[in-house]
């Protein structure tokens, strides 16, 4: 699999690698083959060090693609479903998601975004 990886921070360069494999899915996770993705200002802010992030990392959080695999317990999508990936994934149960109908303010989703996802580059586990 290909990935554009931020290897150092701050940096104005993403390095393209063609030897990236993902770790096994955990329960509740979904794997998506990305068809389209954008680079937005928050990605640039990570690259320039304004938003600290553990490196190396794969940036991007706005995309569209096709579900290729699902972890245990996932029932809302199946492989083959076309999906979009939101900036801040709503949890669906907090006050902002249910009481105020403002899922864009969901702090649970924001916290989940800050976790490092593991992948393998060659023989090295990253993240």
Characterise this structure:
With 127 residues, the chain is α+β, with helices and mostly antiparallel strands. The chain has one domain: Quinone Oxidoreductase, Chain A, domain 1. It contains three helices and nine strands.
Topology:
Blueprint: E1 3-6, E2 15-17, E3 20-22, E4 30-37, H1 41-47, E5 57-58, E6 63-70, E7 82-85, H2 95-99, H3 107-113, E8 119-121, E9 124-126
Antiparallel strand pairs: 1-2, 1-5, 3-8, 4-6, 6-7, 8-9
Low-confidence stretches: none
Query: What is the CATH-assigned architecture?
Result: Alpha-Beta Complex
N- to C-terminal separation? 16 Å
Q: How large, in whole angstroms, is the Cα Rg?
A: 15 Å
Please give the CATH class. Answer: Alpha Beta
* Biggest beta sheet attributes: 3 strands, antiparallel
| CATH topology title | Quinone Oxidoreductase, Chain A, domain 1
Number of strands: 9
Going by CATH, the homologous superfamily would be Medium-chain alcohol dehydrogenases, catalytic domain
Can you give the helix content as a percent range?
10-25%
Estimated structural class: alpha+beta
SSE arrangement, N to C: EEEEHEEEHHEE
The largest beta-sheet arranges its strands as 2-1-5
Whole-number tally of structural domains: 1
- Summarize model confidence as the mean pLDDT: 81
Shape: globular
Helical element count? 3
Fraction in beta strands: 25-35%
